[in-house]
Amino acid sequence: MSVQLVGVNFTYPGAGAGVFDVNLEIQPGELVACIGASGSGKTTLLKMVAGFEFPDRGQVIIDGLDVTRLRPRERQLGVVFQNYALFPLMTATDNVAYPLKVRHVAREERLRRARETLQRVGLAQFADRYPGTLSGGQQQRVALARALVFQPKALLLDEPLSALDAALRPLMRDEIRRLQREHGIAALHITHDQEEALSMADRVAVMEAGRLVQVATPTEIYDRPATRSIAAFVGQANLWDGHSVGGDGVELPLGLLKLPPHDLPERTPVTVLVRPENVVVGPAPDGINEFSCRVTRDRFLGSLRRYDAEIRGGTVLGETSARAVIERIHIPPQNIQLIPAGPHDKPLEEKQP
Ligand SMILES: Nc1ncnc2c1ncn2[C@@H]1O[C@H](COP(=O)(O)OP(=O)(O)OP(=O)(O)O)[C@@H](O)[C@H]1O
């Protein structure tokens, strides 16, 4: 059961904000995570699919059916929100059975199906408990069971894990993926948490100012971001602006950097991306892209160490598991990614490391 958005446009009345020219297809069993800065339109996109708002133009197609003008309930979607939105005066079973009740399923049948779904999310022994007596993770699993109980055509997840503590989140990620794959339904997952998006999703959709600017696998988004702003938004990044000197070089504020051969004409403006883990501590065997440096910030993060290496012309952010004093670094040419300067590039929203 797939979800398709075709040329979807929506502007909030009286405001310039909304979503624009959105085309996206989520295959059965596929999970697409939508990420983007606050206010970029992620929730609005979810509202289009859910039917909480109607597009001004374009179509929403679910399981091959045009649902653009259908109301939320008629779309048969499972929706899970950040705050669970459970009914506090109903037991876990009654909460899960509720969508069946509104669909006029007979009482015995709906209780049977609710218990069965609770069992599937590992909560059989909590069936008669009230939400207030359950932990955050257990409540979230009730919410998930409630979204799955009526065999929805797709699953919409709006920050479903952000209220959970860090230890529980990876478990719930796996749980959601297992259930969603088992049911073979398409899922759209809105999240602020990049690690969650990269680790859970089959594909990641990046939003900027109401538009999908890149939709690709997690590794493609991380390794080959389409624009400078995507590179800055996803993960940690060294981003340097400069220009091509033809052949295999780029001229940057920190000097000439050697790259794998490229065919950009001389003086083409480019942005260079180097992920911190691709900066290597110590001298280069051939002296290529090697810098002497002074470490100005050094943070020990357990399995790795993140440092700022001051070199002539700038600062390089690096990551290493080495514990020794860092006096020289190098950047192997194959670890450098070229991002053509493009019209999409907007002022950066770079994170502080
Ligand atoms: N009801 C509304 N009326 C007018 N503008 C709105 C309304 N709801 C949202 N917006 C605007 O639409 C834009 C997109 O909002 P949306 O909630 O989709 O962003 P988001 O990416 O989900 O943000 P966040 O990550 O902060 O939840 C924002 O500029 C927001 O101010």
Automatic annotation (TrEMBL):
Instruction: List, in alphabetical order, the Gene Ontology terms for molecular function in this entry.
Output: ATP binding; ATP hydrolysis activity
SMART domains reported in the protein's UniProt record: AAA
Record key words, sorted = ATP-binding, Nucleotide-binding, Transport
Q: Which InterPro entries does the entry mention?
A: AAA+_ATPase, ABC_SmlMolc_Importer, ABC_transporter-like_ATP-bd, ABC_transporter-like_CS, Mo/tungstate-bd_C_term_dom, P-loop_NTPase
UniProt KW Nuclease keyword: no
Domain of life of the organism encoding this protein: Bacteria
* ABC transporter domain mapped to chain residues: 3-234
Listed GO biological process terms: quaternary ammonium group transport
| Any Pfam family | ABC_tran
Q: What protein name is recorded for this chain?
A: Putative spermidine/putrescine transport system ATP-binding protein
| Native species | Thioalbus denitrificans
